[in-house]
Design a protein that fits this description.
It is built from three helices and five strands. It has helices at 15-22, 59-62, 68-74, and strands at residues 4-9, 25-32, 41-52, 87-99, 110-114. Strand 2 (25-32) and strand 3 (41-52) form a beta hairpin.
Length: 119
């Protein structure tokens, strides 16, 4: 199984892009809003980032996964003009999933996934 997460469109000359160019190891936090301590839910993805420009052969494969429209609406940007910045794709090496409601069914609230050595 290949766990790949294509998530971000960044400004090409931003500090974050310079950091990824220097060290591609990244961590991405994804969370749901808390309703209380027992309801926390989210994932932490650890992996290596690859930067794909629009002329990269895999760009079109990952582009549909990026939901840029909601970000444009929040920033009062036109939906007729999708972002043109590079797409950052993260291939996950490790994922930590947390959902405290899992305890109700007898599971640990944190679940761990690691890429197998053969991958």
């Amino acid at each position: 199984m290949t766990a790949t997460l294509g998530l971000l469109v960044l400004v090409a000359d931003s500090p974050k892009m310079r950091n990824i160019g220097t060290d591609p190891r990244v961590s991405i936090g994804i969370f749901a809003p808390l309703v209380g301590q027992a309801s926390s839910r989210g994932a932490q993805v650890f992996g290596r980032a690859s930067v794909l420009t629009s002329d990269h052969p895999h760009f079109a494969h990952y582009w549909p996964a990026f939901r840029w429209q909601s970000d444009h609406v929040e920033r009062s940007r036109s939906l007729d003009e999708p972002p043109t910045g590079p797409l950052v794709v993260v291939e996950a090496d490790r994922i930590v999933y947390t959902e405290h409601w899992l305890r109700r069914d007898g599971y640990a609230p944190r679940q761990f996934w690691r890429r197998s050595a053969a991958a």
